[in-house]
């Protein structure tokens, strides 16, 4: 059984990402029904990580351990990412900096949301993923605040995103299956 983590990388109050991550999780389960794959949504907000390099409290040390173990438990990932100031959120980048062997030789796909569907954030994350020895899918799903959200806050995705997500899932499952053989 493949285990895929759907990681919500925004902790911003009032974030649009929760609706996007829930949609991604629900659709992924629907589109892969009958396949040997399991999806779990992971919300970065549940992990109170310190800034990398600062002295961690006992509680933060436990959060680091829990984050590491959760991420290590997956065979592949879908990062649900926002774009803040043309890049990935600082909290998500910080969380990724705590990882290395946990994600090595695993597959990664992106569902982004923002003014340009988080395209610049995703491109930045591709470089980070390369450094972490992760393989990224060719296909992304890019949600626009202008067309996939009513009043830029109520999530109403266009129906064509279903096809994009199906393609993304096919690539992610193939890569995750292949990479599992070398870990």
Can you describe what's shown?
- By secondary structure, the protein is of the alpha/beta class.
- It has a single domain, classed as Rossmann fold (3-Layer(aba) Sandwich), CATH 3.40.50.
- The chain is built from five helices and seven strands, in the order E-H-E-H-E-H-E-H-E-E-E-H.
- It has helices at 17-31, 58-72, 90-97, 119-131, 160-180, and strands at 2-8, 37-43, 76-82, 107-114, 135-144, 149-150, 154-155.
- The radius of gyration is 16 Å and the shape is globular.
- The mean pLDDT is 97.
Largest sheet: 5 strands, parallel
What oligomerization state is this entry in? Answer: single chain
Based on the coordinates given, report the CATH architecture: 3-Layer(aba) Sandwich
CATH superfamily: Flavodoxin domain
Average pLDDT number: 97
Question: What is the end-to-end distance?
Answer: 15 Å
- Work out the radius of gyration: 16 Å
The count of strands amounts to 7
Spatial order of the strands forming the largest sheet: 2-1-3-4-5
Share of helix, binned: 25-40%
- Tally the helices: what do you get? 5
CATH class: Alpha Beta
The outline comes out as: globular
Strand content: 15-25%
* Succession of helices and strands: EHEHEHEHEEEH
CATH topology: Rossmann fold
Task: Draw up the topology in text.
Blueprint: E1 2-8, H1 17-31, E2 37-43, H2 58-72, E3 76-82, H3 90-97, E4 107-114, H4 119-131, E5 135-144, E6 149-150, E7 154-155, H5 160-180
Parallel strand pairs: 1-2, 1-3, 3-4, 4-5
Antiparallel strand pairs: 6-7
GO molecular function: FMN binding; oxidoreductase activity
GO cellular component, one term: cytosol
Protein name: Reductase
């Amino acid at each position: 059984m493949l285990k895929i983590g759907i990681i919500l990388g925004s902790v911003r109050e009032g974030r649009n990402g929760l609706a996007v991550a829930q949609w991604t999780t629900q659709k992924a389960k629907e589109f892969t029904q009958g396949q040997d794959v399991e999806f779990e949504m992971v919300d970065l907000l549940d992990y109170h990580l310190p800034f990398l390099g600062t002295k961690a409290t006992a509680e933060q040390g436990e959060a680091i351990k829990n984050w590491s173990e959760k991420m290590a438990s997956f065979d592949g990932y879908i990062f649900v990412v926002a774009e803040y100031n043309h890049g990935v959120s600082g909290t998500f980048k910080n969380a990724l900096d705590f990882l290395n062997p946990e994600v090595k030789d695993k597959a990664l796909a992106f569902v982004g949301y923002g003014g340009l569907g988080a395209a610049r954030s995703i491109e930045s994350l591709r470089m980070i993923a390369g450094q972490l020895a992760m393989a990224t899918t060719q296909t992304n799903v890019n949600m626009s605040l202008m067309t996939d959200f009513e009043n830029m806050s109520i999530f109403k995705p266009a129906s064509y995103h279903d096809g994009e997500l199906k393609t993304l899932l096919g690539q992610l499952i193939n890569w995750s299956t292949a990479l599992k053989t070398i870990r």
